[in-house]
Amino acid sequence: MQKFFTTSKSRRVETFESLLNRPLKHHHSLPGKRELRMAGITWHVFIPDSLLEETHDPKLRAYKVGQIARAAAIFGVEHIWIYRAGGRDGRFIKTLLEYAETPQYLRKRLFPLMPELRYAGVMPPLQIPSHKPKESPRIGEIREGFAYRKGKKLFADIGLDRPALVKGVAQEGRGTFKVISVKPLRVVPTKPEGYWGYKVHLTRMTLAKTLKKANLDVVIATSRKGVDVRRADVTLEGDVGIVFGSPRRGVMEILREFNEDYEFDVILNTIPGQKTKTVRTEEAVLATLAVLNLMRGD
Amino acid sequence: MQKFFTTSKSRRVETFESLLNRPLKHHHSLPGKRELRMAGITWHVFIPDSLLEETHDPKLRAYKVGQIARAAAIFGVEHIWIYRAGGRDGRFIKTLLEYAETPQYLRKRLFPLMPELRYAGVMPPLQIPSHKPKESPRIGEIREGFAYRKGKKLFADIGLDRPALVKGVAQEGRGTFKVISVKPLRVVPTKPEGYWGYKVHLTRMTLAKTLKKANLDVVIATSRKGVDVRRADVTLEGDVGIVFGSPRRGVMEILREFNEDYEFDVILNTIPGQKTKTVRTEEAVLATLAVLNLMRGD
Lengths: 298, 298
Hints:
The structure is a homodimer. Chain A is an alpha/beta fold. The first copy, chain A, folds into two domains: 3-7 and 36-127 and 197-295, Alpha/beta knot, CATH 3.40.1280; 142-189. Chain A has seven helices and 13 strands. The first copy, chain A, has a six-stranded parallel beta sheet with strand order 9-3-2-12-10-13, with helices on both faces. In chain A, strands 4-5-6-8-7 form a five-stranded mixed barrel. In chain A, a hairpin with a 4-residue loop joins strand 7 and strand 8. In chain A, helix 2 packs across helix 3 (90-101) and helix 2 (58-74) packs parallel to helix 7 (281-292). Chain A is elongated, with a radius of gyration of 21 Å. The first copy, chain A, starts with a strand and ends in a 6-residue tail after the last helix. At the A-B interface, helix 1, helix 2 and helix 7 of A face helix 1, helix 2 and helix 7 of B.
């Protein structure tokens, strides 16, 4: 996969334009990549397990994870990676992010009562396409569900008043289903069309190792000291990773702390001219995705 | 003051570029405007007094106001206007926004104990230039202070271990001061250089009336149904207002509800292709400012 990255202060007008106008190359099913992704960008966001190191109030801790979940959902991020950065909240962050991403009607099935979820209710609902209300099913409709065996048959809870019989080859557990018959209610396993939600990866590995594992096409670090996003020239295509630091340490500091090095395609300052001394991780995620969203091809 | 606004789908590449590249006209002291603003944009953000209509938890209410404060500070917003939209929290929002904007060392002087401030501590600190630590004063340094009369003399608390004697013409109350002598500590009233903080205006008036009072050069409404920001062509100069709706109602609905009409220079969708059903006001403020920040001339 081709990568391209240059920066130049003197080419400001030109690169300005190219940043936002570059036609996106189509991304035909690369070997080893998700087959369904036909075009455009798959966003991956990388946050440290120290995200909450300065937040002690349990309600606010849940709310902040909810802010990350909302930012990811608003901008169609498909993967959130939690990398090891000396924090203790990896498991907590993952659980809450996954809880937020799960349709309300599946939460009881998938999440046992656990202390991490005590304040999960403060997270704003994501209202993403997979979070469908209970309504009369339509043929062709796609709904997120949970498949379970009953005797020799497989049924799925797809958030309606009755279970659906699963036809075709499917596994027990969470899955995506398409309604093929309403009376009786029957579904087949399917793949979602368009944005559906995100997956959460808690690698327990340091940043460089996590990035390697993610196998990205383009990797962007965010930093106040990075290239002004208006002056950067970077081609976004395929699997694009955006890396954020922690409340106390920037991305480069975190790498140094773990004796790591990583050759980013670009280090971007997405908030040129910021007036506050620091920008918090949850703020940087939303602001950066808002800026990079303008580069999407859709 | 000249205004210019067109939209055209076919001119995408061209307008894309112009959106972000248009050279900003200098804004020489217009009659009746702040004399000190010499160039660039003065941002005004408009939020409804119904901002918290869906937030009942008192800690989260304070935190959300803090999110607005942080977004404004990060992007150098100088005016936050709270317009009447059927909410009951105008006073609460104003108090918390002002509290967040006040340097820590002046808070006790300016804010009596009041129930609104009970959870003010959950708001993240703004860390703006006016929030200076207690350190050895330097001649020429500018600090925010509070002036008070003692006998025939005027002193100012500028957050140091001793009060400063105020020379020149100054009033009692909050003000900005420049250190002209360290031993003895003397200051003169001055105007801040660069971004210093924001003012909060609670008009108790509906949106159209509030906008009229604000006397802006350019007024932008934000709406999911607006023009894709990548396709909009709008000249930003002088006093630029950005209007946000409430959690339940968009800007146009709020206007209709109060039988008002307003001719915006442009209605912008700053989050093209959003994947969530709605975007919350505090999210829209941060995302929109992040996008429009790229149009600043500095």
